[in-house]
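Troubleshooting log. The previous structure file for this entry was overwritten by mistake, so regenerating from the original sequence record. Sequence copied from the archived sheet and checked twice against the printout by T.R.
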Amino acid sequence: MNERIKNIIPQLTGVRFLAAAMVYFSHHVLPFSGHIHHRFYDVIKEFGSTGVTVFFVLSGFLIYYRYSNRLSFSFRSLWNYFLNRYARIYPMFFLVTVISLGFQHISDVKSWILCLTFINGFFDEYIRFLAITQGWTLTIEETFYVLAPFIFYFVLKKTSIFRIGMFIMSIGMLWFVLNHLFDIHMFKSFYFILYSTFFGRCFDFLTGIFLAKIFLQKDHTSSIGIHLTYFSVFLFGIALFILSSLSSSIYLYGVYNPAGLLLNNFFLPVIIAAFFYGIIHEKTWISQILQSKLFVILGKSSYILYLIHYGVVGTLLSSFFISLWGTSSLMINHIWLNVGLTFILFTLVSIVGFYLIEDPINKWIRRKFSLKLLNSNNQIQK
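Regenerated output below.
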């Protein structure tokens, strides 16, 4: 195995920031895309859905890459796996969610339970309108974390990725039927399953897993005759253009269109995986930027940026930032000035939050509660 890949993949850390930035600009330009009829704004608007797909493919790659050969169904192994996922995701999520619900003056116990347990992402009426607006993606992410050990088992048994995906999607469809038979009010529609749940987005994660499986095999660095980095960026740009063309008065985002959903769920993950392959193996200016120290720092803090840039906390911070330069609202003539300055300040807050809050808590939880594993000779290993 390539030692550089085995030890660290800084380019993919940089990609995390890139994806978070895509989602940020999508959300902050969206209010103006309806007033300024320009294809450029429509393309920027589509960044949100594609940025989420980048996160999911990346998550599938990293989790399989890190855990496939060390995760077993023993109590200690599963404990450490879920503890690591908890330490990585939950502390900052809990903090931002509590602040958001508090400022919204929500006293309904059901709402608090649904939001704090990620379950709200399974209900259409709760998915985007409580606490962290973009938090529905974390429900998908957490579902993957829970099912990952079982998925890895079948992948390692050389079961077809396509068969695994179809099986997972079938579970979602069955769940939908049962919900409607028993009037449980989960999984409102087939579209809801396909776009807003893991059961529809599983191919994003499985594509990342397939790519990681390639990396974990020998002789995977052979040249394929083209600059995959640039070619995948070209294809990604075409996909964005198509998605922006599919948006209309009926479909706010192109991905809401059935053709856009097909493109986003089944073709875009392959393009993104090709981009990942390219930035790791090809020496381009793109890979150099993504693996720079600055982008690694930005990538590490991107989770906080993703949590706070939109929703209640995002609105509070945006109002505070805008007041710093003496304007009370975003004017159309100053869109990029306000959006750009706000983005810089959001990023700075995220970096500070990572080093002062997220990273120390993450390390403390792992150090305090991790269990030592036994090797094949029943000897304790760290």
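Residues 195 and 201 are 6 Å apart (CA to CA). Archived copy saved in two places this time.
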